[in-house]
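Form 7-S
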Amino acid sequence: MTSPTPLSYSHLLPNTYKSTIASWLTEDTPSFDYGGYVVGETPSSATLFCKSPGILAGVPFFTEVFTQLSCTVVFHHPEGSFLTPPTGGKLAIATVSGPARCILLGERVALNTLSRCSGIATASRSLVDLARGAGYTGIIAGTRKTTPGFRLVEKYGMLVGGADAHRYDLSSMVMLKDNHVWSVGSISRAVAAAKAVGGFAVKVEVECQSEAEADEAIEAGADVVMLDNFTGEGLRVAAKSIKKRWEGKGRGVLLECSGGLTEENVKSFVCEDIDIISTSSIHQSTKHVDFSLKIDH
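Output:
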């Protein structure tokens, strides 16, 4: 019996990501490649350097950029590893080989993608570690507040960093927020409508501002209740009260909290009755990991 293939986040990627990368290359060189004319197609190699500490993430995107340009890439560190360049120096982490102009055609697209994805993975790992250090055993998740056209890369970075990517898009799960409720008149009506079309396969989550709203959502059949902008002791009291009340009725429900969570205040959100802590801080305005690509000479 053969051993199973090691699991890799790259196996999650749909084949369509390749056409997305092709569009990035088209955007960067919509007409003449003047710099490419200067260097020509001399067989060359280039070294990818890491210049700031962080988690390596985005390897399949970086590699595919150069594959489409008839180049090869060999990484010397596995994806998910923490890269620590020497103080004031840089760490060689991969080699790109191919025609000189092709290496330079892909350079900026590949670096931008790798830097962003690695930055998100690094922020995700840091927040997860802080939460675990504070005793939290539940799920740390990102949000859908991603960059249009770049969601796949950003969600991928969350996963490599150890966070939950949360729902991928509007079709992945129903999340009923205040605007949905205001539009139809009540939480109960909104949940009923969502359940009618989503069926058994699609979870329904409801954003709630109070225990009363949470109770209405659970009564209506919500699978997940988000306690929005609850903090500190108020969050702990509400979560414990809701869980105790509904478990006593034989009804379990997942509780999520969201709103304003950062590395600085994560400990105040830690609560054994909260199943999911979600935050956009791990993928919005995160610091990128610094990489550079230099032709060997």
